[in-house]
Each structure stands twice: as C-alpha cells, then as structure tokens.
Amino acid sequence: MPTLTVTGEHDPFLHISLQQGESISCESDAMVMMESNLDLTAHMQGGLLGALARRLVNGESFFQQHIQATRGAGDCLLAPPFSGDIEVLDVGAVQYKIADTAYLAATSGVGLTAQLQRVGAAIFAETGGFFVGQTSGAGQVAVCGFGSLFTLDVTPNNPITIDNGHVVAWDSSLNYQISLSTGQNRSVLGNIINSITSGEGVVLRFSGVGKVVICSRNMNSFIAEIRNQISK
Description:
This protein has about 230 residues and is of the alpha+beta class. Helix content is about 20%, strand content about 45%. The protein has a single domain, classed as Double-stranded beta-helix. The strands form 4 sheets. A 6-stranded antiparallel β-sheet has the order 5-6-3-10-13-8, with no helix packed on it. It has a 6-stranded antiparallel β-sheet with strand order 11-12-9-16-19-14. The radius of gyration is 18 Å and the shape is globular. It comes from Alysiella filiformis DSM 16848. This is TIGR00266 family protein.
C-alpha cells in the first residue's frame, strides 16, 4: 500500500511514496510534484452521477486526479487548496463521512461516494452541502482543514456539540443532529433568535462512539468566499 506522510509543520505537504503498480486518487489540482515514474490522469470519483451531483450541487471538481506508479517506484507531493493541516485516517473497520472541500487523497483500496444528506441538514448546516463524502473499502484517506486539526473522542457519556463550519470528518457510525443553538430546551423560534443575537450559528450534536476531526478556522467562511470570487 502507498505510504502517506504529512511533511512540514506549517501548511504541510502530503508526501506519498508509491511502489510500481500502486496508485492513489486525489482532489483536482492537489498534485504539486511527482517523479518521472508516475503518471497522472483524470477520472470521475464515484461514477458519472456522483461526480455530476457534487459538481452541480456542491460546486466540487467533476474530475479527480489519479496518480499511478507505472514505470517503477516514485514519490509525489500533494497540497490542500487552503492554508491548514492534513490528517491521515485509517479506513476499514471504521468508515468516515467527509465534509465539503475536506477530502484530499485516498489509497486505491478506498472508495469515496457522494451521500445525500437529510434535506434539513443540508439546508441549515451546509456541512458538505446536500452531499457529503462517504468512504468505503480499506486503506487510508487524507483529509484537510482550514487551520489546525484536532481529533475529538465522542462517547455515550460525552456527546459533543461542534460549530458546523469547523467539522472536517467524522466516524460514519456516529449520530449527528442539526441545531441553530447550543441551548437544550428552546423552541425553534427561540433557537433562531438566539442564533441571530449571539452569533452562535449552526451546530452539530454528535453522539454515540467514534471520532470527529475538527479544524480551528471556519471552513464555511472560506468556502463562501471562494465561491463568491468564482461567481464574479
């Protein structure tokens, strides 16, 4: 299996070492450098319908990059589209949901499909838009976040509430609910008023057993700014 290593303390690279015949998939424009034994091609992640859905609804890239060691062993460097950390997650016994723009790369044994969220979650939370990434198979997946990354452990005795703009990836076995407030007993109107007056915004309440990867800076603000620049 390819070796994925995070290299650098600030705005790191993802360093990938491939043996002949091995391959990885990565987000469009992620490749920074690759050695001569490697080939880069474009392909549709998740098939035509999945790629089209992500492009039309979430504004993500239609094609993903595919890097393969076709003439012998070689290394490549990948980088996220924004300033921030990279985390390599083991996929197999645990599968993950990945927020919009947080996917960076995956080894060839890992599949990534677009999974339709609950309509309310998509409209109010904007975490991954109407679709979030869902891993399958076995291997490793690299995710990235805006700013520093930190991993939280959710347990039955320790459910966690997180601002949705800071969520990068989470164990797909976890339960999560959307709320406009951290308050437990407010009405819907009360939650809306509190959200507006406090600046609290939308939060996700995770429960069960599993891990959540979060970032220190709000990814929704970054996404909104990028999309605003693209639309101009």
